[in-house]
Amino acid sequence: MMKLFKLSGLSIILLMLSCKNEPKQEVVSETQNTKPNIVLIYLDDLGYGDLSSYGATAFETPNIDKLANEGMKFTRGYASSATCTPSRYAILTGTYPWKNKDAKILPGTAPLIIDTTMVTLPKALKANGYQTAVVGKWHLGLGMGDVDWNQPVKPGPNEVGFDYSYIMAATQDRVPTVYLKNGLVENLDPNDPILVSYEQNFEGEPTGTDNPDLVYMTGDPQHSNTIVNGVPRIGFMKGGTAARWSDVDMADHFLEKAQQYINEQRDKDKPFFLYYAMQQPHVPRTPHPRFEGTSGMGPRGDVIIEADWAVGEFMKTLEEAGLLENTLVIFSSDNGPVLDDGYIDQAIELLGDHKPSAGLRGGKYSLFDAGTRVPFITYWKGTIQPGVSDALVSQLDFAASLSALTGKETSTPDSKNIIDVFLGKSNNGREDLIIEATSRTAYIKGDWVMIPPYKGPKFLQNKGVETGTLGQFQLYNLAEDWSQENNLANSNPEKLEEMKQSFEAIRGD
Ligand code: NG6
Ligand code: CA
Predict the structure, then answer these.
(1) Apex CA 202: angle with CA 199 and CA 206, to 5°?
(2) pTM, full prediction
(3) Residue 97 contacts by C-beta under 8 Å, 6 or more apart in sequence?
(4) Does ligand 1 lie within 6 Å of residue 139's CB atom?
């Protein structure tokens, strides 16, 4: 009986005709069959302008463009934050990240910041009958503090709703530089235990600071601790030699794990949810040699080409498994672009006229639009009609929308069910949204954005990014002012007041 769930709609109808005596069971079969698989492909630091389908002309991203051109391309899709951890927290919990003081960029040793009793997107999908998996970057903390990397590391993804996890703990530039499968470090040799610290080096271990001759990619002072594969990292690590990842193979490695998962699931009875969290184009940008030089823009461009290739390969796997018409694919990024994020890799020098933010103001870390407005695509062959939508949509809404699509809608504090918008059936997106950047928040309502005054720098010198902080209220009309040049706070006090009040009503402070 269970096998029938994978049959086509036609087979199910035939089956129903031939088994008239068991109506109840057949209804269940049909419902199961209509539940799509869901894949969330999530890039790291990919800017709004970093795809040819979003205006890039310096290079081509044909595979991701195919999703954009044959699916819904959103022009006002937002990550919840201008950095990684809070954006990912928002996706998985349906909760604004500024409500959790720990939802900020985490070291590799941070404890898990999602309470294991919390409702999460993968848990909601599991309750609706799904198998769930995460492959790629995690960066939401692991364990309960003081992790022993030589033992099962818990709690982690498997304790917040993922049946299968194959992850890197934090970021590619942070230790530990190892993969964990279902909480266990891959290729761990008990005779070469892993030690990790973010406070001090282990005696005799080379670092970027002390041994610049061992480094092939120079880092800033923060990225000058333990050297792995010639790349100095944030944090110190000793041991685990056999378990250390190969940076240039990371894209292939995660792709292989994602493909393996699809091929294992294809003949199973349950639909699946795969969160495929790629590492590109976050630093250190380490394209596989076969992608070196492909963009003419140095490693940052090359890894975007590499990521596009991986998306193409992944989509081929879905197609070959016969799942394309039964899988909703969502593509987005966790925050906006940055050129210099701690390593000297010619991202600025070789940029040419490419505009990673498509002329939006700011970038990663910024409250200006480029910090959180990101490529945002939904693709479902045969179900989503190709189109472009300017509806306001947020990654925060995946929890309510995807659970509603697949059965019981889950209730989380801030996620809204806008599944019809994601499926291109409606243009009624969110009315408003709070965005976050390094613990500061701003408010978007319709075409308007209001940024409250904050203390602190206007410009991050080392990143070349405007923070969005100006020390006074800012009000912009994004429909008329793409790059946020005209602050209307003084000329439109009524709108400013309205925005302040709505913002405070949500923030509750
Ligand atoms: C910062 C790192 C940066 C990057 C970021 C996390 C500096 C000096 N260093 O602390 O290189 O790793 O954390 O990026 O800014 S994120 O996309 O995971 O949020
Ligand atoms: Ca990121």
Answers:
(1) 105
(2) 0.94
(3) 80, 81, 85, 86, 87, 89, 90, 103, 436
(4) yes
